[in-house]
Every structure is written in C-alpha cells, then in structure tokens.
Amino acid sequence: MINDREQQIFEAFAKLALRKHENKELPQITIAEIAKEAGISKQAMTKYHFKTLEELVDTMHRRMSLDIHSTFANFSPEQKICPITVMAEYVLPALYPWMNLIKAAYVAYADASSMEYVEKQNREWILPYVSEISKTLDVAPELIANLVTDNAVNIIKLWITPKYPKGPDEFSVIFTALARKTINPLLNREYRLPENLMKANERERERERKRESCVVKINLKSCQVTK
C-alpha cells in the first residue's frame, strides 16, 4: 500500500527524470534532487523514506509488481477467457496509474528492470495458457511463454514511450489488433476474443483490405502500357 508521502516522492522522481530526458540532460538523479522536487528535506528523505535512488526505484517496482500480480491472480485458463482480453482490458488499466513512473524509469532513467517486472509477472501467468501448443509442437512451455511475453511487452513499450500516451481504453484496441497478429497464434485455440474486441479487429481488417485494394489499383494503373 502506497502512502501519500511515498506517492509524492515517486511522482517527484518521475517529473525530474522526464524533465531531464526532455532537456537531453544526463540521466543522473540524486536523492537530494528528488527530495527538493518533492518539497521535503534530504535529511527527512534519507531518514524516513529512501536512502538511495536504487532503494526508491526498487520499492516502486515492488509496489507496481503487487498491483500487476493481483490483477493476473483473478484469471486462469479454466475461466476460458482469452489472455489477450485479460491483458487488454485488465492489465493495461492496472499499469496506467504507474505510467509516468514506468516511463521515467525505463525511458528517461534507462532502467530496463522496470519492464522486467512486467515481463516476470506476465511470463508466470501465461504458462498454463500455452500448454496445448507446447505439446503439439513439442517445445518447452517456458520458451513459448517467453515468446508471448516478449511480444506483449514490446506492444506495451509502444504505449509508454510517446510523450502523451493514449488512455488504456483507447490503447486496448491497438494492443488487441497487434496481439492478434503476434500473440494469438501461440495460445491454445479454445481461447477466443470477446465479441466487442472481435468486432474492433474486424473493422481493422476491413481497413487493411481497403488499403491493400487501393495499392493494387494504383499498381495496376502504373503498369498499364498505352498502345
């Protein structure tokens, strides 16, 4: 559970890291700078809260990890809910309150472990969902879980890196469309997308067909030879 003071310190770290990143400054941040940004003294920071930047970031990771774990814990293969749906409609909203902190640590502070926490939670949870294809292909389920997780995390990175990320509801449609192409083939066939996401994907496929049709028409015109 994050108290108000901790939240204030985390937000100060995020603001400071992102500001330095935007100003193209070196990603070097001190506890004194964070304390000043948070409006508290360095002495109070090191005595009552965090002695080092590493301790602060590690605490942030553990808090975020608990939120993600509690979200994943609500779902299992027995419920027959598509994992893509869980990630799009439940995990993304759980990550959203941590967006600036993840972005600050991963993008600005260049701390790859921010996404490693997300990867670890996803990898452990997805294992039971890939058992069928694992047996069919005679491939270790851990390897397939790694593929699914890598794809999911790469899509999430597309979400957190822009200066003004989309909200989770809006990005869930993008996540689903990309996951359908990269993740869905690796999952057990019995897990289907829900009706609303299937319709969103069908609209996306229709747009793709129209774009491809336009390209074909343009190419045909360019290939015509006048007699």
What this model shows, in words?
It is a single chain. This protein has 227 residues and is mainly alpha-helical. Helices cover 72% and strands 0% of the residues. The chain contains eleven helices and no strands. It has helices at 4-22, 31-38, 42-49, 53-72, 83-95, 99-108, 113-126, 131-137, 141-160, 168-182, 195-223. Helix 4 (53-72) packs antiparallel against helix 5 (83-95). The radius of gyration is 22 Å and the shape is globular. The termini are far apart.
State the distance separating the first and last CA atoms: 77 Å
Structural category: mainly alpha
- Helicity level: over 70%
Shape category: globular
Mean pLDDT: 81
Please describe the biggest sheet, giving its number of strands, its sense, and whether it closes into a barrel.
Answer: none
Evaluate the radius of gyration. Answer: 22 Å
Figure out the total of helices.
11
Can you write the helix and strand succession as a string? Answer: HHHHHHHHHHH
Short description:
By secondary structure, the protein is an all-alpha fold. It has helices at residues 4-22, 31-38, 42-49, 53-72, 83-95, 99-108, 113-126, 131-137, 141-160, 168-182, 195-223. It is globular, with a radius of gyration of 22 Å.
Key features of this structure:
11 helices; 227 residues; 0% strand
Task: Compile the SSE list and pairings.
Elements: H1 4-22, H2 31-38, H3 42-49, H4 53-72, H5 83-95, H6 99-108, H7 113-126, H8 131-137, H9 141-160, H10 168-182, H11 195-223
